[in-house]
């Protein structure tokens, strides 16, 4: 009999593990598979409070079941009209107060920890800081990532070093958005009138070069809110530094190498360059940076924030952006493109690379 | 003037309802209008769930989806839940305190018509121009940026409907303070009356911030102001504060009457007085008070800083304490009782685990550091549907079954009632439980679609199937209502057999003057006390005399109609080439002010029901 109970327990745990693993979502996207210090602390708090809450629910469940089983109406007797019970009422007032206090301590400590951005405020003489800072500017429906210390700008794909605190300045240029990388930590809003600051950290062990972390907008911002995604590539510090250097080395737009790409560059210079920059300098003011910077477009893993990075998707997107991102600001800013023009533009854009070679 | 006269034509009945100032008929109006909006809101929810049935679905467009989600939230909160709660307050509260009507019957009617015209205006947006599309919260930067008139419908419609709610709240407050029957002290008031009282106070303080916020938005959008335009020195965060200083108390405005209804049900069907009545009253007041101290927990990610976030986090978690007190008091009301599982009791029993689930996730959300992950994801969607459906909607269903005989004189079918319960209960948990996980797996709320391969597919299918089960439950309820109305089998005073409070001492439905003689209240559960001493009814507190009654009036309808017309003028006047906007705006406002003027200068002293007619009624009443 005892052995049977033991086996039951084992199989119960087996099922529980199975359920839990099925319940934790995708490693690049889920808050339940933390890949950084902030997310880890938040996950621990979730587990802690969930256990606490399950305990509370268990107590209620026991009383609930006893009541429903034991006190069904059997006869027409009038039960004793009890007014209350002071001792019991005090117990179920005091215990919840204690539970709330127990949860309040780690909560408040974590809130202050996540808001601690002193390192980015400490400025050197030239105005830069030792910590890595990224200015995140959210726009209808794309993301710009500016590295003020490194003086470079990129878009749609956030590139960060692993295993160190990365500090963020968040702002929105049109309507309110919210910057969220679930696997790395909770979100913070990009307001239109003030800069919000916080930090995240990306774990090198969890950073998978094949499946980049997914970031998204978490505040309703218009029709394409659901498609306002971005990717996060977390690199070891040395590779990150290399990428920064490569970017910084691009002072002039890269020249296309093939004939087709050269045609593409001509079209680009006529129709696209008014909004899209192909040099990474952050010299132009933010207001003038009206569309994602495309300096390293060829290196990226997504088109328009969420489509797989291939030529077909690029052509589809260029010929009819409205279908792929309703309400976007690119629709109607340039004439219709012929298939030849699309081929040329695609060849040019796919060739814009700073990594690899 | 006798309303229990014989059958009347449709026109006469319609006119009677258009002009009525009787709280019981106004309750009918609230129930019908609120029920209708509930069906519309439910339909919008079904469209949302169909769209999310599979990834990259194109059942509706991205823009239409945003309109659906906005109108679903706005309709359900302002036009369904609020009026349905008001329906029960109107139907039951005056009876529970032993009053002949509310303090201001005219205002009661005005409140209803303002709500109805506001709701109609909001829903006309589907047919004119476009529906609002910035979410029920309508955050300023997004709502100001919207072209078209969608947001204008939101701002003006809610303004008119909100006025009605505010008037209703003040009316209930005055009624409860002044019109309690002899012997009905505050601490003898039934729990539902207590929650109505606290909720009315919440309305009094919570709706003005909404009114102000909506006015600022109206001026920003229609009259060229820049309160929320950051580029012009405005500030969008102010809107968030205004909205949530209203919006958080609003959820308590909805849930407290639900607590009240459940408190009545647990006591009735356990045949026991409410356990820990005074601590229940204390908890209700405390929840109402704390409800105003926690609004910024909706804004943890807005960037208010760690100090504000910590204070609001702790304040939010503190609300768990009075709510916990209530849960245990309900459990111990049943403990030692004699429980009968009628349809209302099934809803009440199911409410405890469902609401508890929403409560514990509420504490987790209140813990700000975790909230950074939960905020604006499906976890939040799951949480607030657990409290609003698992709390408020369950209570509305329970209340509908419980008070149907008191409102209409007939009993809803118990078998169909239980089928509704099972379908809705199962569907509800199917729809929303899985959404906790969707949120944690990285699915933000308010997304019109999601991509394949992120592990969201199966869960969304489960959720959508659940939504259809809930819809099936509602359809069964509708069938039940129709069958019951057609059969029209009248029941007696106390059809559940175990009524405890004053409303069950009256016939079903009560006569239009409620109490022929005001009752003498000798303790909590006044009717129960008399029953236990073997008496058939209440001891009168006054000799039989003439009863003073208010006259019916069409003016509330006209006052509301004027504002409805004015709203069209305000909305369209800014359109290019529009010439009629300003004249219509002025005409509408003059129409309203004129109607109010007529009301003010025309003496209306009401009328008296002579004593003789009351004696006559008494003889007829014996049959019932």
TrEMBL record, chain A:
The protein's role, per its UniProt record: Subunits I and II form the functional core of the enzyme complex. Electrons originating in cytochrome c are transferred via heme a and Cu(A) to the binuclear center formed by heme a3 and Cu(B).
Residue stretches making up the Cytochrome oxidase subunit II transmembrane region profile domain: 23-118
Which PROSITE patterns does the record match to this protein? COX2 (PS00078), COX2_CUA (PS50857), COX2_TM (PS50999), CYTC (PS51007), PROKAR_LIPOPROTEIN (PS51257)
Tell me its EC number(s), please: 7.1.1.9
In this protein, which residues make up the domain named Cytochrome c? 259-353
Q: Name one GO molecular function term.
A: oxidoreductase activity
Reactions performed catalytically? 4 Fe(II)-[cytochrome c] + O2 + 8 H(+)(in) = 4 Fe(III)-[cytochrome c] + 2 H2O + 4 H(+)(out)
- Note the InterPro entries from the entry: CcO_II, CcO_II-like_C, Copper_CuA, Cupredoxin, Cyt_c-like_dom, Cyt_c-like_dom_sf, Cyt_c_oxidase_su2, Cyt_c_oxidase_su2_TM_dom
Listed Gene3D superfamilies: 1.10.287.90, Cupredoxins - blue copper proteins (2.60.40.420)
Q: Where is the Cytochrome oxidase subunit II copper A binding domain?
A: 129-246
Q: Which GO terms describe its biological process?
A: ATP synthesis coupled electron transport
Sorted alphabetically, which keywords does the UniProt record give? Cell membrane, Copper, Electron transport, Heme, Iron, Membrane, Metal-binding, Respiratory chain, Signal, Translocase, Transmembrane, Transmembrane helix, Transport
Q: How does it sit in the membrane?
A: Multi-pass membrane protein
**Co-factor(s):** Cu cation; heme c
Q: Where in the cell is it found?
A: Cell membrane
Q: Which family does it belong to?
A: Belongs to the cytochrome c oxidase subunit 2 family.
Protein name per the record: Cytochrome c oxidase subunit 2
**Predominant location of this chain?**
membrane
Q: Upper taxonomic classification of the species?
A: Bacteria, Bacillati, Bacillota, Bacilli, Bacillales
Record GO cellular component, one term: plasma membrane
Where in this chain does the entry annotate a coiled-coil region? none
* Uppermost EC category: translocase
The free-text note explaining how the cofactor binds reads: Binds a copper A center.
The residue ranges crossing the membrane are 45-69, 90-115
Automatic annotation (TrEMBL), chain B:
Transmembrane stretches, start-end? 29-48, 68-89, 110-128, 153-179, 191-217, 237-262, 274-295, 307-332, 344-364, 384-404, 416-441, 461-483, 554-574, 580-598
Q: Which GO terms describe its biological process?
A: electron transport coupled proton transport; oxidative phosphorylation; respiratory electron transport chain
> What's its membrane topology?
Multi-pass membrane protein
| Location of this chain's protein in the cell | Cell membrane
Enumerate the catalysed reactions. 4 Fe(II)-[cytochrome c] + O2 + 8 H(+)(in) = 4 Fe(III)-[cytochrome c] + 2 H2O + 4 H(+)(out)
Q: Which UniProt keywords apply?
A: Cell membrane, Copper, Electron transport, Heme, Iron, Membrane, Metal-binding, Respiratory chain, Translocase, Transmembrane, Transmembrane helix, Transport
Task: Return the GO cellular component terms, semicolon-separated.
Answer: plasma membrane
SUPFAM superfamilies given for it?
A: Cytochrome c oxidase subunit I-like (SSF81442)
Query: Cytochrome oxidase subunit I profile domain spans which residues?
Result: 9-522
The record ties this protein, via InterPro entries, to: Cyt_c_oxase-like_su1_dom, Cyt_c_oxase-like_su1_sf, Cyt_C_Oxase_1, Cyt_c_Oxase_su1_BS, Cyt_c_oxidase_su1_bac
Task: Please provide, alphabetically and separated by semicolons, the GO molecular function terms listed in this UniProt record.
Answer: cytochrome-c oxidase activity; heme binding; metal ion binding
* Lyase among keywords: no
* Pfam families linked to this entry: COX1
> Main localization of the protein?
membrane
Q: What is its EC number?
A: 7.1.1.9
Q: Which family does it belong to?
A: Belongs to the heme-copper respiratory oxidase family.
* Record-linked PANTHER family: CYTOCHROME C OXIDASE SUBUNIT 1
What is known about what this protein does?
A: Cytochrome c oxidase is the component of the respiratory chain that catalyzes the reduction of oxygen to water. Subunits 1-3 form the functional core of the enzyme complex. CO I is the catalytic subunit of the enzyme. Electrons originating in cytochrome c are transferred via the copper A center of subunit 2 and heme A of subunit 1 to the bimetallic center formed by heme A3 and copper B.
Name used for this protein in its record: Cytochrome c oxidase subunit 1
